[in-house]
Amino acid sequence: MSKKTFNITGTPKIVCEADYRDIRVFINDILHFIIPRPMINNKTSDSIRLQAYYYGSRKSKRYVIEWSNGNDSDYYGYDNFEVWKKILELLNDNI
Q: Domain of 55?
């Protein structure tokens, strides 16, 4: 499977909405991804693990966010440092 890379230019509007079921990230009012909250004994938990890193050369870096909630996991790659940083800040505030 090839890695997903989102080429986002400029300064997009990035918003995060969270409730007891999941965390949703929107870029320019379009749903980007959903992280479901894990269920433990029919109760929601905030036990979501995040890992962020970058790889590549100075000219072509890719910034990655990986998440896992115990049941599901996924990763997203970006070529824009500011978008990656903003999404990480929003996830930190909403998990």
A: 5-94
CB of 9 closer than 8 Å to CB of 79 = no
Cβ contacts of residue 10 below 8 Å, gap of 6+? none
- pTM: predicted TM-score of the whole model, two decimal places: 0.77
Q: How many domains does the chain have?
A: 1
Total residue count of the chain as it appears in this document: 95
Q: What's the pLDDT tens digit per position in 41-93?
A: 555 556 788 899 999 988 889 999 999 887 788 999 998 899 999 999 999 89
Distance, CA of 53 to CA of 71 (rounded, Å): 22
| Two tokens, residue 38 | 């894990």
Q: Which residue is associated with the tokens 């036990």?
A: 47
- 13 close to 87: Cβ distance less than 8 angstroms: no
